[in-house]
Amino acid sequence: MADMNGATETAGTAGDDTTARPGPDGLRRCHWALGTDDELRYHDTEWGLPVRDDTGMFERIALEGFQAGLSWLTVLRKRPALREVFAGFDPVVVADYGPADVERLLTDARLIRSRPKIEAVIGNARAALDLPAGLADFVWAYAPDRSSPPRLVTDVPAATPESAALAAALKKHGFRFVGPTTAYAAMQATGVVDDHLRDCFRRGAATE
User: Fold this and answer.
1) Which residue range is the domain that position 127 belongs to?
2) Residue positions annotated with a catalytic role
3) Residues 68, 48: contact at Cβ < 8 Å?
């Protein structure tokens, strides 16, 4: 699974045939969720639930962009600070950020201090506001036909034709840090696809 590659390294053997595993409460979960309490909480309460609002979708795309080259756990633990400095990821507010804001954010040790990533969030906010139908509807338009639920970790792709098409469309509209893998990770996180393993108790979250 795209946005959980870093967690896979700690929670299981990357590339193995892992199925859903029992958690501390006996419920079977996607194995990446068993690495830390933070990952378990995110898996159980958020990952794969449908996100239909523009602010929520913008946040997920921004977070997936921040993850590039890092573990998801790193991003997850910095998320409260990122939400604070990016005004709850309100694209209307973030679109007004300028060079002084970039420099300010680069001095904040709580954040992922990457100039290209910070500038991409600001640029992507502006691009999101230019989408006539809104960002959430734009992303959901690339939802694939539902297929058989993945049983093994190796059944979950890193990218798909739909995520490649979404990434290309986003880039055409001015988005950055949205390659096919990042786009697929956002699709997983927002319920556009349901990649909870077949035996995971959260399978079907995308229909809630």
Assistant:
1) 54-189
2) 42, 64, 72
3) no
